[in-house]
Amino acid sequence: MKGMNTKNTGILSGLLGLGCLIGLGMLAKETYQERQRQKILSELRDFFTKKGPIAVLYVDAAASSSETTTGGVVMTDGQAYTYTYHKGHINTEEDTTC
């Protein structure tokens, strides 16, 4: 009976350790992704600030993926652009629907 308790304790400890590792991995992944999002937004702000003051910068989460960020920006003068960000490259198009 004592051997069985030792075995169960070992299994339980292993499962708890595995759960902790998975949790830490998920936390690290979320932290990395958030830093990447902030870096991309900073690059977009720097890019569009050259065209003038920004009123709104937004990301279209439905159209974006893990590799490409899509969204738009509205300048304080009312001019609007859509953008696609992919691996450091920003493609813009003037939005004439506004």
Largest sheet, in brief, is: 4 strands, antiparallel
Q: In one word, what is the shape?
A: rod-shaped
Number of helices: 1
- Secondary-structure element order, N to C: HEEEE
What's the number of structural domains?
1
The low-pLDDT segments are: none
Count every beta strand, where a strand is a DSSP E run of 2 or more residues: 4
Alpha-carbon Rg, integer: 23 Å
Roughly what is the average pLDDT, rounded to an integer?
89
Amino-to-carboxy terminus distance: 76 Å
Q: Which CATH class applies here?
A: Alpha Beta
At CATH level 3, the topology is Nuclear Transport Factor 2, Chain: A
Looking at the overall shape, the CATH architecture is: Roll
Architecture overview:
It comes from Streptococcus phocae. This is DUF4651 domain-containing protein. It holds the Pfam family DUF4651. The mean pLDDT is 89. A hairpin with an 8-residue loop joins β1 (54-59) and β2. The chain has 1 helix and 4 strands, in the order αββββ. Strands 1-2-3-4 form a 4-stranded antiparallel sheet, with helices on one face. 49% of the residues lie in helices and 28% in strands. The protein has one helix at 2-49, and strands spanning 54-59, 68-75, 80-86, 89-94. The chain is rod-shaped. The chain has 98 residues and is α+β, with helices and mostly antiparallel strands. The chain has a single domain, classed as Uncharacterised protein PF15513, DUF4651 (Nuclear Transport Factor 2, Chain: A), CATH 3.10.450.
